[in-house]
Write a structure and sequence with these properties.
- The protein has nine helices and two strands.
- The chain is mainly alpha-helical.
- It has a two-stranded antiparallel sheet with strand order 1-2.
- Strand 1 and strand 2 form a beta hairpin.
- 25% of the residues are buried.
């Protein structure tokens, strides 16, 4: 049966919808920035924007259908979008890097400005320095991408140690989860989008203020090391 949308769940879904509207506005702002010039990072950003908008739509349908397994899988996908767009900010040449991705080169084979290969684990570690929750959530959700214990445990409805009996449920709905679990997964989706928004806004500012950014970099390069 469909998920019972309580007032608190409805509020979390409204916050998620606010993010969707914000992303559409940011997309328009980005395309108009610096007199409408288009750079390679714009193309990567557009891809990430499209993926996020589509992810939100699918995620909301999964939640209302009480499909927690797929909702968590989609959440993991959104975190992937956030960490991979973040990688633009840790490479030496963001535009060359974006073109390489456009030409089919895999991110995990490319290196950041420190010479480190940008495998998912490395990107998660780096972004967790600013967003500490990402590391644990990413690790826990990875079990939903590959067939794992998460899928073995999910059909278990009840287990009795004394009688060693187990109740299993094989259906497309996950009715056993309490309201708090649904609120948690929705709010985590919103927070993962907030990370993407943060770096998207960073790119928009960089694009629209190249002289100020260049001056800032010049000043930072001129500072003596600690």
């Amino acid at each position: 049966m469909p998920l019972k949308i309580t007032p608190d769940i409805h509020l979390s879904l409204e916050r998620l919808e606010d993010r969707r509207k914000q992303l559409l506005e940011l997309g328009a702002t980005m395309m108009g920035a610096y007199e409408g010039a288009i750079y390679p990072v714009d193309l990567l950003a557009i891809g990430a924007l499209k993926r996020t908008i589509s992810t939100i739509a699918g995620f909301k349908q999964l939640v209302t259908a009480s499909n927690m397994i797929c909702a968590r899988t989609i959440l993991r996908t959104q975190i992937d979008t956030a960490i991979r767009f973040y990688s633009v900010f840790i490479v030496s040449d963001p535009h060359f890097y974006s073109l390489a991705i456009l030409n089919g080169k895999q991110i995990n084979y490319m290196k950041d400005s420190n010479g480190e290969k940008m495998r998912d684990a490395y990107l998660v570690k780096r972004i967790s320095e600013e967003h500490s929750w990402v590391s644990n959530v990413y690790k826990n959700l990875s079990g939903y991408i590959h067939l794992s214990d998460s899928h073995i445990i999910s059909p278990i409805e009840q287990f009795d140690d004394e009688s060693t009996t187990i109740s299993l449920s094989i259906q497309d709905e996950d009715a056993k989860f309490p309201e708090s679990s649904w609120i948690e997964v929705i709010d985590c989706m919103s927070e993962s989008i907030d990370i993407f928004v943060k770096y998207l806004e960073g790119w928009i500012f960089t694009k629209d203020n190249p002289e100020a950014v260049a001056q800032f970099k010049k000043e930072m390069d001129g500072k003596p090391g600690d």
